[in-house]
Amino acid sequence: MGAIGEQIAAYGGWRGELADAIRRYFLWLDDVELADDVARARIEAILARLGNERITVAFVAEFSRGKSELINAIFFPDHGQRVVPSSAGRTTMCPTELRYDRDRPPSIRLLPVETRIDDTPLADLRDEPDAWTEIVLPHGDPIRLRQAFGAVQEIDLVSVERARQLGFVQEGDDGFLQPDADGMVQVPRWRHAIVNYPHPLLEMGLVIIDTPGLNAIGAEPELTLSMIPKADAVLFVLAADTGVTRSDIEVWRRHVSPVQRSGRIAVLNKIDGLWDELKDDASIDAEIDRQVASVAAALELPAGMVFPVSAQKGLVARVQGDRGLLARSRLPALEQALSGELVPRQREILVEHVRREFDEMSGVAGSLLSARRRNLVEQIFELNALRGKNRDVMGHMAARIRGEREDFEKGLRHLQGLRSVFSRHSRTIFATIGADALRQHVRNAREDMRTSNFSGGLRTGMDSLIGAARVDFGETGRLAGEVGTLMSAMYKSFSAQHGLSLGSPILFSMKRYVAELDRIEALQRRHFGAISLVTTEKWALMRRFFESVASRIKALYEKLNRDIQAWLRAVMAPIEGQIREHQDQLKRRLDAVRRVIDANGSLDERIEALERMRAEVEQCTAVADELVGQIRATLGHPEQPGRPVGQLETA
Ligand SMILES: Nc1nc2c(ncn2[C@@H]2O[C@H](COP(=O)(O)OP(=O)(O)OP(=O)(O)O)[C@@H](O)[C@H]2O)c(=O)[nH]1
Ligand SMILES: [Mg+2]
To answer: Is residue 546 part of a domain?
Structure first.
């Protein structure tokens, strides 16, 4: 395994360790009865995120530049043979996703190209098992895998008319769709392939996307709109023997350079073509450097971001264990750059997410524990003050506690009122961003497209859809802001009047969702904003493109719904927990005083019992600190902000 293999494996191992530490913490939380439904849901969400973490690398280029060969050399050299088909001319005919999902058997799933005809986006078809043809690979057998992989090369002969219907005619076509003597053209048999295979790196969450040359990329909106932009790294491949052609530049401009989120790496493949026994190494290297410089200039990249390699020699070197040849293929330098591009950034995002989620959750448990301890300390203090006092004084004290209790009950009635405002707001939020609302927007946008003239149609529809989403997001932000203000007031009043330690509520920010909407809008504008002349085929392509945008917005709404729901629950949870705690405490205090008055128990016995409880809570807190400390250490906290979550306050 090269540098990437090691990094991804280490990253996977680290995630496993973190998940174990979090699981231990939760078991303990459950043990000491501090685990409520909200905490449980949050822990499950964190564990799911850690388990389902994916790192995606997309290979994009004109045909025959060596994308598939690179994948073989970097990820599958230990199979001793090519796994992904790679050959002269057009080879990979459909976008191919290599991944591993444990809950599926090893298989290759193929989506027939006919599914392009109705406008259902790929994202929606993913969840429709009937749409796919599945080849099961028993026990992940590598030989069967290689055979089954042949499917990505399959083509069909169809009439030009049919090819048009399927969306395969493109401007600037390089002759791929030239009809034969009978007027037939070749089209891919499949629209998309998903290979589910238990390769060690895929098991760790790596997803590889191999793409075919330009034509099919242009025709599948999901690739340009979603799969390539969402990839964590995009490798753009050129070949030394062809140099930078016009269509290479076209692919780069359209599909790779607009993608800002991912790391972009350019590869100059097939440098073995420059190897020449009659030249010395220095002049060969100088020639490679010259080519790299000209590629860098053409792509407007720093020369350091263009990696000259020989995928083929790299693969051979690995299969034959030839270190000299591997070094000469320069593959390790590319892998080093790729892993540097991939893992650290990914890890940073994950750490930030887990840290935020975990801190919020453990913070709730921590402040419950410290409230519990503080209450005990106060109660011990109260009972100590009763030593040697007569019944009258005790009667006063009981009356005072009863008074406190009544006040608190009043506070709870007030809370009831606020709760109903809270649920009303929640309902309005869910109506605003609900599935029905979005469906209506999409319907309206389709109608706008249909009724406006052809060339402006897509733009009108797209603007109407994105505009409607913006309005919904604005409204949701406003409502969530109001809920936040309401909760802040509620936290504050319970803290001030009843001494609960609530801190301030977490607020909800719409920033991320609006930013994602901006990204979707920018992407669609770049692709279709400038189109003025619309042919029938192009119109079909644009319609599919619209459906892809709609599907991506739908996913964004769904995420927003889930996140808001979790937030609403999380913002209520601390107050509910502390109220229960406070009620228990009032009851305990009153019981204690009553018992002493009724001479049912001695004061000393009560105080002793309370001291024991206090010792227990303190021990509990120490365990919490240790478990939280382990998790923080695994997360690699930069500098510890403030005190650990459950740390004792000085009484
Ligand atoms: N000499 C040489 N040939 C290579 C190298 N890498 C790939 N090739 C050859 O180039 C041809 C195309 O390679 P593929 O891996 O199929 O290219 P691709 O980019 O996946 O092409 P499509 O699947 O058609 O989009 C094959 O014949 C490979 O053997 C290399 O480093 N050196
Ligand atoms: Mg290929």
So the answer is: yes
Residue 9: what pLDDT? 85
Domain enclosing residue 451, as ranges: 388-600
Spacing of C-alpha 457 from chain mean position: 33
For residue 314, give the ligand 1 atom closest to its CA. 31
In this structure, the residue with its CA closest to atom 22 of ligand 1 is 63
Q: Which atom of ligand 1 is nearest to the CA of 65?
A: 19
Strand segments, DSSP code E, in 137-247 are 155-159, 184-188, 190-196, 206-210, 233-239
The pairing of strands 206-210 and 233-239 is: unpaired
Q: Where are the alpha helices (DSSP H) in 433-453?
A: 435-451
Is there a single domain that holds both residue 315 and residue 437?
A: no
> Within this chain, do residues 319 and 392 fall inside the same structural domain, yes or no?
no
Ligand 1 pocket, CB under 6 A: 61, 63-69, 86-88, 90-92, 212-213, 269-270, 272-273, 310-312
Tokens of 491: 């936290």
- Which residue's CA lies nearest to atom 30 of ligand 1? 270
Report the alpha-carbon distance of residue 454 to residue 449 in Å, rounded: 8
- CA quadruple 375, 381, 383, 386: dihedral, nearest 10: -150
| pLDDT at residue 218, rounded to an integer | 53
Structural domain count, the chain: 2
Walk along the chain (651 residues) in steps of 10 and give the mean pLDDT of each run. 79 92 93 85 91 91 93 88 88 92 92 88 89 88 86 90 77 61 87 91 90 66 80 92 90 79 86 91 94 94 93 95 95 90 85 89 86 88 81 83 87 84 92 94 88 69 92 96 91 82 86 92 75 62 82 93 90 83 86 76 83 92 92 72 35 29
First to last CA, the chain: 56
Distance (Å, rounded) from C-alpha 93 to C-alpha 65?
14
Domain boundary among 600, 624, 640: 600
- Ligand 1 pocket, mutate which of 70, 82, 86 (most atoms under 8 A from CB): 86
pTM of the model: 0.80
User: What sign does the dihedral 387-393-398-401 (CA atoms) show?
Assistant: negative
Residue nearest to atom 1 of ligand 1 (CA): 270
Cα-to-centroid distance, 633 and ligand 2 (Å): 43
